[in-house]
Amino acid sequence: MQANMKASESAIGRSALLGRSALVLLWALSVATGFLLLARIETTPSARGATPASIGLDVRSGGSTEAMLFVHPKCPCTLASLHLFEKLATHVASDVHFTVWFVRPKGVKPGWERTSMWTAATRIANVQVKVDVGGERSRKVGALTSGHLIICNSTGRLLFSGGITASRGMEEACRAEELADQVIHGKVTTPVTTPVYGCVLTP
Amino acid sequence: MTTCSTEVPRSTLRKMTIIDRPNQILSEKLDSLYRSTDRLFLGLFLCQWVLAIVFAIVITPYTWLGASKSVHYHVVFAVVLGAALNSVPIYLILRHPGATVTRHVVAACQMLWSAVFVHLTGGRIETHFHVFGSLAFVSFYRDRNLLITATLVVASEHLVRGFTWPESVYGTKNPEWWRFLEHASWVVFEDVVLFLGINRSHHDMSVSAKHEAAMERVQERIQEEVDAKTEELRLSMDRSSTLQAELFQSQKLEAVGRLASGLAHEINTPIQFVSDSLYFIKDASTDLLGLGERMRLLSTELDGSNPPEPKSAIDEALEEAELNYLAENLPSAVERSMEGLNRVAELVRSMKEFAHPDQTEMAAVDLNRAIENTINVSKNEHKYVADVELDLEPSLPQVTCHGGEINQVLINLIVNAAHAIGDIVKDTNGRGVIRITSRVDGEFAMVQIADTGGGIPDSIAQQVFEPFFTTKEVGKGTGQGLAIARNIVTQKHGGTLSFESTPGSGTCFTIRIPFAPHDATEDQAA
């Protein structure tokens, strides 16, 4: 009688353990899937247009090497790009012209672009902050995503086109930022293209 | 009924208990610790979930498409992934608190929360400190194995991310081969520190459990001793109660015995004059019967042929019968006889009531009547040396008490008073006074027995209630009277017995007995 009861209890215990193990396994799988999905979204580059090999004077100022960062004023991920852009601007010779273009989509009132990111950009030394009304300039250089950096030399030849973050909002130093730095310092002469992560500048 | 043949001897069981108890206590403490830490993590998980949502809403609220916006995927992931992450750990905490699987899942979950925050904050290096904080939190369980689980989760997440997306971990696509070790070494460093801390904590808990087990054993032994002593005390009290009851009885018998000769004398006196009167009545009845016979003969002769002179014959018969003498003395003889018989009957009644066997339960007693009975039965002790003055409160309510025992108290005090007066007047023709008063004194019935004896010297005033203490000559007292009287009044009835004495003038004993029944068990419990 007792042996039967013990066997029954043992069977119940095994069953409960099995149930719990299955539950934990299911949980681990669903959580892992969630993380993988998150990573996939964060590492999937956003859309980009075709960047011409030579940047015209209708976009650039001319006279020196130029680094132009096109940003969406309200894209939260772009703040990481702005910080990395600041690092580039800080560690470079003064003959490079740095500009942050705040894209103001059509149909919004002037001043819409004056966000906290705007304020942050204006505080960076050696960086000019300008408004790209309706995204005219950004479209011309194929910058469709916030955080797209265009670097060209004094003649307008394209040296760099793409993002400088490893993923969406990833602020840590990455290969793209390293390449941009090398381009600015003249260490890389062939045009460099990198993926861009961020919000769509204009529809 | 069958007996289990494999029954473990009691001593072996006890030994096993002693050996296993520290481990048992340690297990209980750890289980309690696991459960409380489970609850801590329950709160922490919920807080982290809320914090993750707040982070997402504050840092990355929207995704923009030109001027139009939609909810950022970080917000969606904070809500959905956070809920999924918390679901099973919280379920296990609620359904299986303290279980091993719960702890391991909790540890894994906490480390994954670090990954969530790293993602939500854009991989900021500062957020990676959450990993170290989480490891410290996991160590609250004092379970070394959890450090392995937590570290494996961190390492796995790091490795997977390092291989598939190295820039998010190392900031470069081609990190040096040892970069993983650099990251891991800091986690291992904290693991070692926490491992040592947990070991030390385990040691302390183990020592504490041993001390606690030792304390329990000591307490158990003390309890056993207390139980044994209590049992001994109970038996002793039982014996004491029996002895006390026997002592009361013997003292009562002593009092009755002492009174017996006096009572015999008290009864004998009226019996004597009843007897004398009856002899007189017997002679008188003979004379009266003779007179009657003479009258019948005279009547016969008067009917005959030679009748005597009627008047002279009647006068002669009356003179012979001494009718005048009989008429004068016969009623008083009958009256004396009746009085004597009444006195005997009263004495017998008093004695009967006095010697009334004690009842287990208390009963309503008329204290004034008890005093009168006691005076009657002890008359021979005091009537030669003292006059008894009674000042009894007529409206004294009945007292619920043990009547027989209260009688014993009264007789002890009255006889003591008589003896005290006797000692003073024995060589004189003087007499003393025993004054007995009854009164209502609040919730008590108060009886005072005052004598005009020699009083109690101050030097022995503290000893008079001690058992076997007596100043009387051998054979006149056992020294138990006052001790028993006080025991009866104070212990059995919750009253008081005190005295005031002026050496050379006399002593007054005061008894106070509560009208309401006194529960003796309360005293015993107290």
What does this structure look like?
The complex is a heterodimer of chains A (203) and B (526). Chain A has 203 residues and is an alpha/beta fold. In chain A, a hairpin with a 5-residue loop joins strand 4 and strand 5. In chain B, 67% of the residues lie in helices and 10% in strands. Chain B has 14 helices and nine strands. At the A-B interface, helix 1 of A face strand 1, helix 2, helix 3 and helix 5 of B.
| Percent of residues in helices of chain B | 55-70%
Strand content of chain A: 15-25%
Largest sheet of chain B: 5 strands, mixed
Low-confidence stretches of chain A: none
> Runs of chain B with pLDDT <50, length 5+?
1-8, 521-526
Shape of chain B: rod-shaped
| Ends distance of chain B | 45 Å
Give the C-alpha Rg of chain B.
Answer: 53 Å
**How would you name the oligomeric state of the polypeptide chains in this document?**
heterodimer
What is the ordering of alpha helices and beta strands of chain B? HEEHHHHHHHHEHHEEHEEHEEH
The number of helical elements of chain A comes to 5
Residue share in helix of chain A: 25-40%
Side-by-side strand order of the widest sheet of chain A: 3-2-1-4-5-6
- Structural class of chain A, by secondary structure, is alpha/beta
